[in-house]
Specification:
Elements lengths: L1 H31 L5 H23 L5 H10 L5 H25 L7 H21 L3 H17 L7 H26 L21 H24 L4 H12 L8 H31 L5 H19 L6 H15 L10 H24 L3 H12 L1
Helix pairs in contact: 1-10, 2-3, 2-7, 2-11, 3-7, 3-12, 4-6, 4-7, 5-6, 5-8, 6-7, 6-9, 8-9, 8-13, 9-13, 10-12, 10-13, 11-12, 12-13
Length: 381
């Protein structure tokens, strides 16, 4: 028994080592292709302009978290103007719904941790399943993220729920508006084909893997919250959001193993992106730039590179996305260039904590290749 377990652990670590090697190789290939593709260069420029506009507006309007507006400006963009508008509307509508839901439930759930567990598990499961089966999955995912953020950020003081809900919505609105303005000015405007999705009707048969995927996400969130209660974890909000975002990786219909690998790869890309974005941000902080235009230009340059990698062809797009996220969070701390990397460190702690819990749940609950083969053989027999 112990020998089998040891072999399984060694195989998992070997597989992870291969993933890391492939990820880094793909990332360096992407960097080597900077500026070669005019379409990707233009998309990177659009992203940089969107983030810089969102950052400037957020600072002028003195919102709580200007970095959230900047990230919304980055994530609301698609290859065309029409696609960017659709994505922005989905993000904003999901945020509004999640903010309202979180605010309403903040009157009761902070005082009943068991009910809070049930709600966060259910809404996480809903968001993850929706990303697999619904053409409006992004809206459902942001309903999950925003409602979780509102509740977890107001646990110590439920009276803060309205403040948190309002500013999360306001910040996302700033980012979405900036993305739509820049997309309208700099991108081609033609209708994209509507996204295809299997829909909700076959959850108990053909889409059952998506349901199991959502259930594992819910279990991971509950485990996270229980550990938080026991040892007072920092950055619990970031951990819960990490689980929802990582678990939104697509389910592969061929079986549990493919999904397990997809989640592991997405988790790994997230952590590597955090490391790379944090290291670059630390280097920029070491330059001690105090000029607002140069600070904004550094943000724009990093976003341009992140979007280039995100749209790349070497399978490491999420590394570019996450690196841009962490760079934005670290560099945008207030109305002036920052003098500390601690916000980025705090977010990294939250992400790694969420990923560690998710990794444990994945190893315990996802079938291995041999188990999948045995199940298939049993079904055939």
């Amino acid at each position: 028994m112990m020998r089998t377990f040891t072999k399984v652990v060694v195989a998992d670590f070997a597989e992870m080592g291969d993933m890391i090697e492939q990820t880094l190789a793909g990332y360096w290939q992407e960097l080597g292709e900077l500026g070669e593709d005019p379409a990707r260069t233009r998309q990177g420029l659009v992203a940089a302009c969107s983030v810089m506009l969102a950052t400037t507006l957020a600072l002028l309007l003195e919102v709580d978290s200007p970095w959230w507006a900047a990230i919304s400006g980055f994530m609301s963009l698609m290859a065309t103007g029409a696609g960017s508008v659709r994505r922005g509307i989905l993000r904003l509508s999901g945020t509004v719904a999640g903010a309202v839901l979180g605010f309403v439930l903040a009157r009761w759930l902070p005082y009943d941790h068991f009910a809070l567990y049930l709600f966060l598990a259910a809404v996480t499961m809903l968001g993850v399943i929706a990303m697999q089966v619904s053409p409006h999955g992004l809206a459902w995912l942001f309903l999950t993220i925003t409602s979780s953020m509102v509740l977890l950020m107001s646990l110590n003081d439920p009276l803060q729920a309205l403040h948190v809900a309002f500013y999360r919505t306001f910040e996302v609105a700033i980012g979405v508006t900036s993305a739509i303005i820049v997309a309208n000015l700099l991108q081609d405007w033609h209708a994209d084909p509507p996204p295809t999705a299997p829909g909700w009707r076959h959850l108990l048969d053909a889409q059952w893997p998506a349901v199991l995927h959502g259930a594992r996400s819910a279990i991971a969130v509950v485990v996270l919250l229980q550990i938080w209660i026991l040892i007072d974890l920092p950055e619990v909000t970031e951990m819960a959001v990490t689980i929802a975002v990582v678990m939104s990786a697509p389910v592969i219909a061929a079986g549990g193993l493919s999904t397990r690998q997809a989640v592991a790869q997405r988790s790994l890309h997230r952590i590597i992106g955090c490391l790379l974005g944090g290291l670059v941000a630390l280097g920029c902080l070491a330059l001690d730039v105090t000029s607002f235009p140069w600070w904004l230009a550094m943000i724009g340059g990093a976003v341009w590179v992140g979007m280039h990698v995100q749209n790349g062809k070497h399978g490491v797009g999420y590394v570019g996305t996450q690196a841009a996220f962490v760079f934005i969070v670290t560099l945008i701390q207030g109305a002036a260039p920052p003098n500390s990397i601690m916000p980025g460190v705090d977010r990294f702690v939250g992400i790694t904590g969420g990923l560690a819990i998710l990794l444990i749940v994945s190893l315990l609950l996802w079938p291995r290749e041999a188990e999948v083969g045995e199940d298939a053989a049993s079904a055939a027999g």
